[in-house]
Amino acid sequence: MVTRAETAAATRRTLIRAASQLLDEGGPDAVTLRAVGALAGVSRGAPYGHFESKEHLLTQLAVEAWNALADDVEQLRADLDADPGARLERAVLGLIAVARRQPHLYALMFSIPADAPAAVDAAGRLENEFLTLVADVVGEPDAHRYGALVLSSAHGIAGLELSGHLAKDTWGVGVEQLVQMLVDAIRLGADGRDRIVRQPD
């Protein structure tokens, strides 16, 4: 026999899938609790029983996206036979792939304030997974600053590609090659070759 808790959990998952579909098709403006309920085929009041507001639902979509990426990066970490740099490249490309496949979701992930309680754990989990991969390439002492460089660069690459300002015929380089160059550069920097360390003013 299915319990009430199991039924409620299944309804919540259905609502989240419906919200994700609406987001992909029309962006955040298309995601309303009424539209989500209609697409999910539940009663008009059902979405309000699971989500306090549209903003709460959108935040949940961002949290799910952060956690899904963290799961992917965790699997990459488990591939100990792969070169550390190759694992980091695959993780960065995985982040960029979200922007390519689901640009509205990607934008939503980075529009939720970093200190929003619901997003802190999920975003922090992905950041920690990335830091572990970065540490495998550059060492633990430099992991945080190089990790910030990797994530900010990945975000910039994704944004430029989405906006059309990263056309290969203009720059003569594609996303995959840029990511490889990024990882090679931080590896060289960590090895102390061709590095200039600037002290803060």
Describe this structure in words.
This protein has helices at residues 4-26, 33-40, 46-50, 54-78, 84-101, 103-109, 117-138, 143-163, 168-171, 175-191. With 201 residues, the chain is mostly helical. The radius of gyration is 20 Å and the shape is elongated.
How are the secondary structure elements laid out?
Layout: H1 4-26, H2 33-40, H3 46-50, H4 54-78, H5 84-101, H6 103-109, H7 117-138, H8 143-163, H9 168-171, H10 175-191
Helix pairs in contact: 1-2, 4-5, 4-6, 4-7, 5-6, 5-7, 5-8, 5-10, 7-8, 8-10
Shape category: elongated
Radius of gyration: 20 Å
Q: Please, how many helices?
A: 10
What is the mean predicted local confidence, pLDDT? 90
Question: Termini separation (Å)?
Answer: 67 Å
Strand content: under 5%
Low-confidence stretches: 193-201
Oligomer: single chain
Can you count the beta strands?
0
SSE pattern: HHHHHHHHHH
Q: What is the helix fraction of residues, given as a range?
A: over 70%
Decide which structural class fits the backbone.
mainly alpha
Largest sheet: none
Question: TL;DR?
Answer:
The chain is mostly helical and 201 residues long. It has helices at residues 4-26, 33-40, 46-50, 54-78, 84-101, 103-109, 117-138, 143-163, 168-171, 175-191.
Notable characteristics:
single chain, 201 residues, mainly alpha, disordered C terminus
